[in-house]
Amino acid sequence: MPSPIYAIGDIHGYAAELERVLALIEEDGGHDARIVFLGDYTDRGPESSAVIERLASGKAEGRNWTFLMGNHDRMFSWFMEDFPRHDPLLLVELNWLNPRLGGDTTLGSYGVSVSGRDRMSDIHAKAREAVPQAHVDFLKSLGLSHQTPEHFFAHAGIRPGVPLDAQREDDLLWIRKGFHDFTAAHPKLIVHGHTPVDSATHYGNRVNLDTGAGYGKPLCAAVFEGEQAWVLTQQGRNRLRP
Fold first, then answer.
1. The pLDDT of residue 175 is above 70
2. In which band, very low, low, confident or very high, does the pLDDT at 1 lie, cut at 50, 70 and 90?
3. Sign of CA dihedral 157, 160, 163, 168
4. Given strand 65-67, what is the order of strands in its sheet?
5. Nearest Cα to 4, choosing from 64, 54, 69?
6. Residue 11 pLDDT exceeds 90
């Protein structure tokens, strides 16, 4: 049997949920379990700072953890640049600090309050002072994908028909249309988050692990061994089938 690899869906600033699923993984696979985090560590939830601190600490400890970038993590990282950068894939009426996206709650976790009457330049200056450089460096270090012989992990998914090693960053972080409705086999099983579903779902060619933690729902952790997959629960493994 191939060695297990674990994956955690979108966390979105919920530190207690992160600790809960990390405990499930340790119980199932031990302290040295291999984990892929699928991105979107920040925004909407109230504890983005604590989530980043926990993940960055694990990385510094040398844990067998792989951290992928989500679109929300890129928005946060771009905002923290010398001149805040706007994601061109957002709707014209939105920016990262809009409550619909949740950047305001992320900065709130660092003690920076945001209102619609604030100037972007003022909030940016406060954020640059409040957010630790170690957190900025962590965001910059995030990968775009991870592969095993059987699996391809990415935040949002892939562009069907494009070789896995030629995928565009914007697709890996944002894609929905053209990916969700594609039912043929991919070169590998795609494991992703990004689009909330009621429960972890196996579609045959892909597995979606975003169970809506950003909207207050339980976070999901899954384990993969070869072609088999399970969701981790307090009662143990539940088989995840197409």
1. yes
2. low
3. negative
4. 65-67, 35-37, 5-8, 221-225, 228-233, 236-239
5. 64
6. yes
**All structural domains of the chain with their residue ranges:** 5-239
CB-facing half-sphere around the CA of 94: CA atoms within 13 A: 15
Q: With beta carbons less than 8 A apart as the criterion, state whether 214 and 196 touch.
A: yes
Mean pLDDT of the chain: 96
Q: pLDDT tens-digit profile of 50-75?
A: 999 999 999 999 999 999 999 999 99
Question: Domain 5-239 belongs to what topology?
Answer: Purple Acid Phosphatase; chain A, domain 2 (3.60.21)
Q: What is the DSSP string of the chain?
A: -PPPEEEE---TT-HHHHHHHHHHHHHHH-TT--EEE-S--SSSSS-HHHHHHHHHHHHHTT-SEEEB--HHHHHHHHHTSSSPPPPTTS-TT--TTSTTTTHHHHHHTTT----TTS-HHHHHHHHHHHS-HHHHHHHHT-BS-EE-SSEEE-SS---TTS-GGG--HHHHHH--TTTTT--SPPSSEEEE-SS--SS-EE-SSEEE----GGGTPPP-EEEEETTEEEEEETTEEEE---
Residue type, 197: V
Q: What is the pLDDT of residues 89-124, one digit of tens each?
A: 999 899 999 999 999 999 999 999 999 899 999 999
41 Cβ partners below 8 Å, 6+ apart?
11, 12, 13, 48, 51, 52, 55, 70, 72, 73
